[in-house]
Amino acid sequence: MAFILRVDHEVPIVVTTFTDDQGYPVIVHDIPGWLNSDDTMVTIVVAEDGMSAVVTPVGPSGMAKIALMVDEQVIVLLDLEVTDITSEVETSVLEESRGTGMLRAVVTTGPVRMPPIP
């Protein structure tokens, strides 16, 4: 299921912890690297520690994947659908565990918001 984001909004993503496949906290050895499947669709501004980022649409409607690379594993955080439809936007905060294999990331997304006026 895709996370829907309007082109005139942005969404913060925070990694609260990393766990193993059983849900136990683990220590990662690398600063997480953020991956974006389509730079023409969204941009990612990453915090210095790699534990949070803000995703902002820049392109037309379409799809993008946001993922983390940590300790040589890729964890897909969001299947993002960017839309120019001006309907009601989901503004709740979501927390979930994402990942496959041995390493999972517990992430909080939202609330979706308008970007600051420069």
Protein described:
The protein has 118 residues and is an all-beta fold. It has no helices and nine strands. The chain has one domain (3-109): Immunoglobulin-like (Sandwich), CATH 2.60.40. The strands form two sheets. The chain has a five-stranded antiparallel sheet, with no helix packed on it. Strands 1-7-6-3 form a four-stranded mixed sheet, with no helix packed on it. The radius of gyration is 14 Å and the shape is elongated.
What topology does this entry show?
Layout: E1 3-6, E2 11-19, E3 33-36, E4 42-46, E5 52-57, E6 62-70, E7 73-83, E8 94-98, E9 104-109
Parallel strand pairs: 1-7
Antiparallel strand pairs: 2-5, 2-9, 3-6, 4-5, 6-7, 8-9
